[in-house]
Design brief:
Blueprint (H helix, E strand, L loop, with lengths): L15 H10 L32 H14 L3 H21 L18
Helix pairs in contact: 2-3
């Protein structure tokens, strides 16, 4: 049976910048047993957003609001979904990779169809 590799103890750091400098100059495999690592899941993590001002023709906005009302979601959320889908499709056309729309959908749309 193979003997387990002993890992070095991770030092205590006085600040985040001190820790950053340390990890920039040291190999983590000497300190961490990555064979025991697990993937982190953060289901409640929300992506950062920015507020923008967007002028739309009144008729387009009315149609968007009507579509959103049919789906029982805010029209701003529906607009974000439409934009994310289109951007993903355009990027997929450029790269030749099929987009995964489930990753871009806001939470209020997941599971609704």
């Amino acid at each position: 049976m193979a003997k387990r590799k002993e890992h070095k103890a991770i030092p205590k750091f006085r600040s985040e910048s001190e820790e950053r400098v340390f990890w920039e100059t040291h190999d983590s495999t000497e300190y961490v047993d990555w064979s025991r690592a697990r993937r982190g899941v953060f289901p409640d993590l929300k992506p950062s957003t920015e507020t923008i001002s967007l002028r739309l023709p009144a008729t387009l906005l009315a149609e968007l609001k009507a579509l959103a009302n049919k789906r029982d979601v805010p029209y701003q959320s529906l607009l974000k979904v439409f934009m994310a889908e289109r951007v993903a499709r355009e990027l997929a056309n450029e790269s030749g990779v099929k987009p995964n729309m489930a990753l871009e959908r806001p939470a209020e749309f997941r599971g609704k169809r």
